[in-house]
Design a protein that fits this description.
α1 runs antiparallel to α2 and α9 crosses α10. This protein has a four-stranded antiparallel β-sheet with strand order 4-5-3-8, covered by helices on one side. Strands 10-11-9-14 form a four-stranded antiparallel β-sheet, with helices on one face. The chain is built from ten helices and 14 strands. Among the domains are: about 35 residues, no CATH class; about 80 residues, 2-Layer Sandwich (Alpha-Beta Plaits), CATH 3.30.70.330; about 70 residues, RRM (RNA recognition motif) domain (Alpha-Beta Plaits, 2-Layer Sandwich). The longest helix has about 35 residues. It is α+β, with helices and mostly antiparallel strands.
């Protein structure tokens, strides 16, 4: 397993660790640091107080947003960044939940305009305010107010048999936030290195920043999403999630061969190069032997004969000697 757990005595220390250590390099690999939740035991925020947080930097994740607000108040219960499913990029806003109304109001008052990442964030109520019965939704949050239901609907979706994480027909990984230079071969090598399972297909939508990787079964796909999400590829953290279409039942395809290592020539090119080297060595050896033979033949003749051969006027020689004359002249 490529994960572990660290326990802190204080919640603030754990929040600081998430903020400062997420995506740091350990032995050449970027690590992902987040809050640990027991499966199915994430806190229900139905009756909590939600605030809207806008102007988020693209690099701010759920864990970074939660760490920022939980460091301010231990009564912060949840934080979600809204992601574009098509591009895999942050929409630039999110929602934060608090267990009591006073802490939520204090966070709005104290953290509005504070720096998180590379931007100053904007905070406001995402639901009804503290001292008013009127709806205080901001213009930004009105258009996405229905997203608040995600806080309570996630548990229902997880139990839904048609959800990708529960449906064995889903075998494709959606990979978003791809750098412009990422090609199909680069993406293939990236997921092959994860060792999640047999890869059947790799596609990259050039110029759109996303691609797809298809595995042989549902379990391998889930492992690839878990291990690949947030890893750095081409200087950017990739966003891995389930593809939006299931594989039709009965569809089978052969696994792709392992990708070639970057910078290594193909086998045919390597054989051609070795053959050219061998031919070059053979030609050099033959030329050297011929030069030695001609040198010995020239030394067997007199000086006059050599001069005659050089002048091209030595006529009383055999056919083989005439050939030697011509070779020596050239």
């Amino acid at each position: 397993s490529s994960y572990g757990f660290v326990d802190y005595y204080e919640r603030g220390s754990a929040a600081l660790a998430i903020l400062t250590l997420n995506r740091k390099q350990i032995f050449g690999q970027p690590i992902r640091v987040n809050w640990a939740y027991a499966s199915g035991q994430r806190e229900d925020t139905t009756d909590h107080f939600h605030i809207f947080v806008g102007d988020l930097s693209p690099e701010v994740t759920d864990s970074a947003l939660f760490a920022f607000f939980s460091a301010y108040s231990p009564n912060c219960s949840d934080a979600r960044v809204m992601w574009d499913q098509k591009t895999g990029r942050s929409r630039g806003y999110g929602f934060v939940s608090f267990r009591n109304q006073q802490d939520a109001q204090s966070a709005i008052n104290d953290l509005n305009g504070q720096w998180l990442g590379n931007r100053q964030i904007r905070c406001n109520w995402a639901t009804k305010g503290a001292n008013s019965g009127e709806d205080q939704l901001t213009s930004d949050s009105k258009s996405i107010a229905d997203v608040n239901n995600n806080f309570t609907e996630n548990a229902k979706q997880k139990s839904n048999e048609d959800a990708p994480e529960n449906n064995p027909l889903y075998r494709t990984v959606y990979v978003g936030n791809l750098a412009h230079e990422v090609t199909q071969d680069v993406l293939h090598r990236f997921f092959h290195a994860l060792g999640a399972g047999a890869i059947e297909e790799v596609r990259v939508q050039h110029g759109k920043g996303f691609g797809f990787v298809k595995y042989s079964n549902h379990a391998e796909t889930a492992l690839a999403i878990q291990t690949g999400n947030g890893r750095i590829l081409g200087g950017k953290p990739v966003k891995c999630s389930w593809g939006n279409k299931p594989t039709p039942p009965g569809t089978t395809s052969a696994p792709l061969p392992p990708p070639a290592a970057p910078g290594h020539p193909a086998a045919a090119d390597l054989m051609a190069y070795q053959r050219a080297i061998a031919m070059s060595k053979m030609a050099s050896t033959q030329a050297l032997m011929q030069a030695q033979h001609l040198r010995q033949a020239a030394m067997g003749m007199g000086v006059g004969a050599s001069q005659a051969m050089y002048d091209g006027t030595f006529q009383n020689v055999g056919a083989s000697q005439q050939q030697q004359q011509q070779l020596m002249y050239y």
